Input
Amino acid sequence: MAGRIVTSVEVARRAGVSRSAVSRCFTPGASIAPETRDRVMKAAKALGYRPNAIARSLIAGRSRMIAVVIGYMENQFYPALLDRLARDLQDLGYRLLLFTGAPEGPSDALFAEILGYRVDGMILASTLLSSALADECRAAGVPVVLVNRTTDSADVSSVVADNRTGARAVAEFLLAAGHRRFGYVAGIASSSTNQDRETAFRERLAEAGIDTLLREDGGYTQQGARDATLRLLTRPDRPDAIFCANDHMAIAAMDAARVELGLRVPDDVSIVGYDDVGPASWPSYALTTVEQPVEAMVSAAVETLMARIAGEGAPERTVRIPGELVVRGSARRPVEGVTAVGGREIWRPQSLPRSAS
Amino acid sequence: MAGRIVTSVEVARRAGVSRSAVSRCFTPGASIAPETRDRVMKAAKALGYRPNAIARSLIAGRSRMIAVVIGYMENQFYPALLDRLARDLQDLGYRLLLFTGAPEGPSDALFAEILGYRVDGMILASTLLSSALADECRAAGVPVVLVNRTTDSADVSSVVADNRTGARAVAEFLLAAGHRRFGYVAGIASSSTNQDRETAFRERLAEAGIDTLLREDGGYTQQGARDATLRLLTRPDRPDAIFCANDHMAIAAMDAARVELGLRVPDDVSIVGYDDVGPASWPSYALTTVEQPVEAMVSAAVETLMARIAGEGAPERTVRIPGELVVRGSARRPVEGVTAVGGREIWRPQSLPRSAS
DNA sequence: TTGAAAGCGCTAACAT
DNA sequence: ATGTTAGCGCTTTCAA
Output
């Protein structure tokens, strides 16, 4: 007799009360006599009764479930994000319904399913959201927050790193170290994150009078980044500094340069990434990178989502989280501007002498 | 007017049919006239109607949700596992409810929540399951499958790698390469995975007449592994081969040896891991390791779970998935026994000359 | 404080 | 093929 579902009626019968009384025992703040409560709880325990969350959801009209869609997991940033998300949501009494979609975003079928579950909200990480789907969410009254992506049509909330500022800092850092020939290993070109990082990097270089940026597509994959790096570094005019759109690719770039090409990093070529994922700090890579603070991003995402769940009034907004440029060993260090803060070394752009540009 | 919930009555009214007719349109295999169906579907689309999965679950008595509890995400093996799990479950029409618990297993409160959602099944990865909780699951009729852990009380299904065979292979491999002084960096001692790997490794060594195994606790964390490795390698009688309970720790061990101690790997010390996670194949590590085939493990886990969901008859079982010893550069190579298979080199224990032991 | 009654949105007999 | 009726397990007015 596995799976006998114990209902509140059975508990009620056993405790000699009504179903309502049982219900009240499991409703925080309901008025129930302590003595009745004891009897009910005892009966519940004996029977192994738990209120059915499904039935509860049906009445409440909200499921206390949040759908989370993640594009891909290989890049360590996403598991880290997911981990914090799960914890934060758990702490707030929400359940996390996980979907793995393609980076292009959830398919229509997937989307229909998600909406069918009447989730209270939706978090999309590393995926695009077509405006058609965004509209459907709005119509269904399901708040959405994008993480690590923005949309142009600014009517959907999102939380991103301050990618432009970060990428500019990388440019300044590299310039200050004396680099003049630059390469960029791009992520998926249509992603806002790549666009922001690439554009800002290029802009800052241009401000310094450097208009040539060798660009190769890495597509956010390690294989792609390896190939891109190889193409970059076997050119006659090979760059002496490469900025990769994220750490995941920067690691592959380092391996391509060091192991496949026999180059020394940073002596022959400086490599800088973005995100500061776990492996970036592994001594064998010691990647210089811009951090993308997972905790802060998750907090902001959850906060934004909760605000929109709670009230109709909460407006859509884009939150930009700043991150430090963490200096390690994969890029040549400028003479000045690197300071030790809290056990790690960071680069403060403002301390860069004007003359550097 | 965000969030207006569109019910089947409204669709019915608009299409001029009954609620049942609407329901039948969304029930595969129900008998409905094509013409009616069209009218209903049109109305549904116009109103933005989707059947409420919650209500459906309430009737069906099953939620088509599977709870997945993962102990920690830092170790790349778990994100990889989760990713496949999400896909496989999605393909079968199940939703994945994610919980992040401590390695000691889900807390009672968490457990109550999970059960409250009337999940159809439960997958626990890298967590322990107390027999009390196992009993609750049985009582509630919720099938459970452990992944990457087993319990002694063999009344709960589990899927694990063939850890004993794998660990024996590591011992033979290292012996064949001429090693005689061994170290072991342990995971959490109480985990079945660590126990199996450690015991089998030690046993095989003993069979070769080697009774000394230097052991340090790494606790499955990189910090722990680093410290353990440092202790191991700064002893006067330091080992010339170290087996780490998993890749996650082996990577930290390599860094400790090479970067902190200036040792050469594998010239000064061989390091072998377990799992074959992504970073193991990164050229900077090129970790020799035993694979723990994620796909196969997930398939087995899902299959086992589905069997138990489908029928009462399906027995609890423990599935052991074999994995190859993948030879890369972090350990000295034996003269014989390494063969290239499908783009990688693997070690076949059976080709080890008897004399080696 | 407690119980009776109504109903959340849907599907599954049972009629027709 | 379609509509009617009942009810999944629970919470929540409303009375008492």
